[in-house]
């Protein structure tokens, strides 16, 4: 299997990578970088490509990539003062309200 060849991946893995890439792109990550990150995430979750209906079938994954969130988060905000965190929260709420008014 040459580098970049996705023939060994199941349709589900391909859909998963596409969904992850779309999510990264919506957050402003460039398309090529988003695709690379998406496939890295699929590989971390599933251990690489699997033959459809073959050895990869009915084998659950622990979804290690999905469990990563939250471990690193919070460290930076805990260093900040309560007033700083509160100000950020108020600013975020105002932004959400403004965006909702634009969209609605």
TrEMBL record:
Stretches of Low complexity bias are at 74-104
Which superkingdom is the protein from?
Bacteria
Q: Where is the composition biased (Basic and acidic residues)?
A: 1-36
Disordered, as annotated region: 1-104
Q: Would you tell me the protein name for this molecule?
A: Plasmid stabilization system protein ParE
- Specify the taxonomic lineage: Bacteria, Pseudomonadati, Pseudomonadota, Alphaproteobacteria, Hyphomicrobiales
